[in-house]
Amino acid sequence: MLVERHAETSTHPRGRGNNVRTMELFRTAGLEQRVREAAFALAGNDGVLQVDTLTGGQRRWIIQDISAGMDVSRVSSSNWCLCSQNDLEPVLLSRAREGGDIRFGTELLSFTQDEDGVQAQVMSRETGETYAVNTEFLVAADGPRSPVRNRLDIGQSGPGALFHNISVTFRSKALKECVGPQRFIVCYITDPQGEGALLPVDNEERWVVHIPWFPDRGESLEDFTSERCAAHVRAAAGVPDLDVEITGKAPWHASKRVADHYARGRVFLAGDSAHEMPPTGAFGSNTGIQDAHNLAWKLAAVLRGWAGPQLLGTYEEERRPVAVATSTRASQQAAEEEHPGFTPATGRNDDPADLMTVALCYRYASKAVVGASPDRPVVPDDFRLGGEPGSRAPHMWVTRGGDRISTLDLYERSFVLLAGPEGREWRGAAERASRDLGVPVEAYLVGDGPDHDLAPEPDADWAELHGTAEDGAVLVRPDGFVAWRAPGRLPSADRLLTNALRTVLCRD
Questions:
Q1: Phi and psi dihedrals of 34, rounded to 5?
Q2: For 409, which of 43, 78, 181, 343 is 20 to 30 Å away at the CA?
Q3: Does the predicted model carry a pTM greater than 0.90?
Q4: Is the pLDDT of residue 281 over 90?
Q5: What distances in angstroms separate CA 377 from CA 277, 319, 321, 347, one per listed residue?
């Protein structure tokens, strides 16, 4: 059951950047194509541009290619996508309604918990009716000011607010002539009279501009009248008589904070309630989506009896370090992009991990991984996906039953064991481990022979890509992360695999 105090999905075009990993998750949910259809208006936009004014003579690309020239198809079955929250949420909602109880206009008033469950009081905002909901677990995705986090008395770490903006939506038919042929993700305007960040909504007449707001200098929200905002847009364009119709205004705060804990008992935090970071790099919403993805399979495993309740403790073990590292990278990105209104307290990091590395290469070291080193950095310095335990499993195009799929398409529904062309005994070991533990494990043999399940494409080396041998194996969790890896044929394969599964599921 989902309760949402608002009456409908978001109407403001924000949270637009869905990175490669998030799009992989939408793909495995069967939604990638629908998301791309919802995002068609911005399909050709890329890069971060900086200008003095849109019609001025100074312009440079801060980032011209979000993928940094990488052939993304070599490392993923998906690619990043610009889809604003107001376009994305209806797609997700239609899928969620297929199996979920979705209650808009419903507010969580209070909750208590004990060892048997959570008792929540909720209210219909339309009728005022209050009623009780008894549930096994509560997940709070209730934003940066999170009432649930406050009730749990969970603190936050980090410098807090970094800068403030007013997000202004507007219409202008003539602005696209000022923009010209550049199809950017965001354009920063440096002229003091029009300083801000311009974002296209449809590349035609709907736009968003983020205007710096300085409440510490005494500026109030009321100071940002429609007349002032329209004048700001005209100054940014460098066109005094530009047609501008202001359609909406909303304040937002760029902050860097991470919750000190991600759970208390049966109540969990996810998304902005767990972490805040600047919007640069589009890390915030993606980190939140990936929080939920990490937590979902663990809740399912516990509720279905696959795992011990200690598995839920690995949610914080895995996701909090990712949020700490990612929020730091987002702040570095804000400095790199010279985001209007932001004055970094420290110097720029001239060699941060690139956006693709942050999106795909973060790593876990927890009780739910066997063989991961806790001493290595959460985000490596360079792009590295080699099948190491705790990393996102590599992508590889294969043929199964005449269909071309990615190995990533195999994950999400159960544990998966991939074995090399000479690793036949691993298939039997997986079947026996699955039976003995009562945990679903799908096993696939990769190779070109008649008894192989997945045929790799020419010149593809499964063993090299997964960091093992032709007779090795890789166990992948339902969230697509490597849980354990066998370097080759091993004695007592049944026992080793069963013990690895038992450890990952916290059943020891």
A1: -65, -35
A2: 43
A3: yes
A4: no
A5: 19, 14, 10, 21
